[in-house]
Structure formats: C-alpha cells, structure tokens
Specification:
The chain is mostly helical and 374 residues long. Helices cover 44% and strands 3% of the residues. It catalyses: 2 Fe(II)-[cytochrome c] + H2O2 + 2 H(+) = 2 Fe(III)-[cytochrome c] + 2 H2O.
Length: 374
C-alpha cells in the first residue's frame, strides 16, 4: 500500500524494478473564483498597474464583478489573465512547486483506498477535465474547469471523480490563488511523476469559467466501443492514432469500479506504478470475456484478476493501433517519451496560448528529487 513510510518500497514493486525511474464539492457563485491576489513573491511595478489598468479599461472591473453576461465576464477574466502574464503579476514557479508538493503528499493519505494511493483518481480528474475539448468549436478542455458544475459533474464518465475533486478542494483552500484548471492539471502531473512515470511538461495560466461553459455529455471515451469510436473521440480533440495509443497507456495506473463505471478490476499487477506493463500484458496474456452480470469486459485467462476494456483490446486488433501498441510493449523508454509529450498537450487543450505565464512549459521536481538535494 502507499503509506508515507512505504513510498520507496512501493516504487520498487516487481513490475517496475527492472525499469529505471526516469523521471465537497462546495456551492459556487454564479461567477467563478475571483482573480487571485498577488502572492508575497510576486513583483510589483509600474508595468503591473499599467497591465491591469489596460485589462480593466477593456472589460471594466464592474462588469467582471457584477455583470449578468457570462460571456462578457469570462472575456474580461481572460483579458485580466493575459494582462497579468504580461506584467509578471503571477505566482512564481516555486509557488507552484509548493502546490505540487502538497498534492504529492496527499497521495499517501489514501490508506486502503484503491491500492493505497489517490494518484490514479487525481490523474483521472486531470484527464477528464481536459479531454472534453472540441477543436472545431474550441469549447471544453482544461481552461474553465467546468466539471465543478452540474450536469457535467454527473456525467457517467465522471462517476467517482467527486472523490478527486474533494481532495483537490483541500489543496485549493490552502492555496486559494491557484485556479481549479491549473490545480487539477498540476495534480495530474504530480500523479504521473510520483508514481514512477515520466516528467510531464506543464505551465499555469488557466482561468475558472462558469456553469454555462459546462460541456455536453458524450465527449469522453465509451469503454464499450471500438476503433472508430476512439478515432472520433480523440480526433475531436486533435489527436492521431499514435497519440491515441500513447494516451491509452494511462491505464497502467488505477482500476475500474463496478459501482462507478460498471467495470471492475485493475489493468496491471502494479496499479500505483507507471510502466509499459499495460501494453506488455495486452500482448503477453490471453484475454477472454469475463463471465459476470456486468458490462462486457475481458479478463486474463491465467489469473482472472486483471481486466481489459473493449477499447483497450482493440489496440491489438486494429492494424494501425497495433503497431504503436507493440512498439510501446517493446520499449518503456519510447512509451514514456511519447506519453509525456501527448499528456502535456492534453492538459493544455482549450487554453489560449497568450494566457500561459511562460513561453515554454516547466518541469516540476518530484518529491524524491527534492529530498535528495536537501
């Protein structure tokens, strides 16, 4: 399990030992979290006031605070975020590292929950809050963190994510200046990196939206479907076949719950350690239909303790998907490289480039790296 004292032993679990480590919801006002005040480390200069003044002049502070127009209020918010970026009116990388650390420390408080770590469910929160993006309408994605609102929070694909949102709310209370979109995606980065996965480039700049921005149901993958469905869902986000397969590798972590998705079981024998085992098992094990009263899913014939979803198994059946899945099964290094790149893109879907506080994403340090340097 993943108690704090067992962190190091867990990361050396059998299925990862041979692979070097490279790396409650509350009631919300109609208007989302107010623009955060400057942290103590933030710079204060004439450029700051000029930048903020420009944003206020464009949109009007009174409109931002009191207007009944959601679109107007959001546009002003985005303008203020851009002005803050230009004026360096943002928390420092060190401030975000502190948030990362708090999230990472939270993983070890899981006790008996899901194999002893909150990491997988927090990664799922980051994934699902970003994967609603539609490149044609430029709606959805991580920018507005709309899973805070109904009906999106109640969509079937998001069942059980109230656990992750509640956990992130504790961090939000300690660092009220961070937006939910930044918090949730940073949580996803921490989950991957703390569970022995690759480094995920990340940068802040998301703003909190309104309930009116909540996305319609059906934008996330339906595990009962096949290859055409995967291409439709991920193609809407802007991903190709190789990227679809790489993103599917996130199933190396966590498990399904019959009380949530209807499916049951872990994908790998080490669900709190990230490796390419998901792909290796797809090819190495014999998968048969599970005989039970739940939805159709596969189980490994040998132990009957692992499961694969129809959307997982299709990666071995579709000719294009199969070649990428086979390559990742053969090389953990290649999988980590491609997974890192595509997850970094996933977490930035829907965020206007000018809102980001840095021209290039940052690499956050994991807890072990910081312990080594102390």
């Amino acid at each position: 399990m993943s108690f704090a004292l067992l962190r190091a032993p867990l990361r050396k679990a059998a299925f990862s030992a041979a692979i070097p480590r490279t790396a409650v919801r509350t009631s919300y006002r109609k208007f989302s979290t107010p623009t955060p005040p400057p942290p103590p480390k933030a710079k204060s200069n004439n450029g700051l006031f000029i930048g903020l003044g420009a944003a206020i002049a464009v949109g009007g502070l009174a409109v931002y605070l009191y207007s009944d127009s959601t679109e107007t209020g959001t546009a002003v918010k985005s303008g203020i975020q851009v002005a803050k970026v230009k004026a360096n009116f943002v928390p420092t990388k060190e401030d975000y590292q502190k948030v990362y650390n708090k999230i990472a420390e939270l993983f070890d408080e899981a006790g008996e929950y899901d194999d002893g770590s909150y990491g997988p469910v927090i990664l799922r929160l980051a994934w699902h809050s970003s994967g609603t993006y539609d490149k044609d309408t430029k709606t959805g994605g991580s920018n507005y963190a709309t899973m805070r609102f109904e009906p999106e929070s109640l969509h079937g694909a998001n069942a059980g994510l109230n656990v992750a949102r509640d956990l992130m709310e504790k961090i939000k209370q300690e660092f009220p200046w961070i937006t939910y979109g930044d918090l949730w995606t940073l949580g996803g980065v921490a989950a991957v990196q703390e569970m022995s996965g690759p480094k995920i480039p990340w940068r802040p700049g998301r703003i909190d939206g309104h309930a009116e921005h909540a996305t319609p149901d059906g934008r996330l993958p339906d595990a009962s479907q096949g290859g055409d469905h995967l291409r439709n869902i991920f193609g809407r986000m802007g991903f190709n076949d190789q990227e679809i397969v790489a993103l599917s590798g996130a199933h190396a972590l966590g498990r399904c719950h019959s009380s949530r998705s209807g499916y049951e079981g872990p994908w790998t024998f080490s669900p709190t350690t990230m490796t390419n085992d998901f792909f290796k098992l797809l090819f190495d094990e014999k998968w048969v239909w599970k005989k039970w009263s739940g939805p159709k899913q596969y189980e490994d014939k040998k132990t009957k303790t692992l499961m694969m979803l129809p959307t997982d198994y299709v990666l071995t059946q579709d000719k294009s998907f199969r070649k990428y899945a086979r390559a990742y099964a053969d090389s953990n290094e290649l999988f980590f490289k491609d997974f890192s790149a595509v997850v970094a893109r996933l977490f930035e879907l829907g965020v206007p480039t000018e809102q980001f506080v840095a021209p290039e994403p940052w690499i956050m340090k994991n807890l072990d790296e910081q312990d080594t340097k102390q």
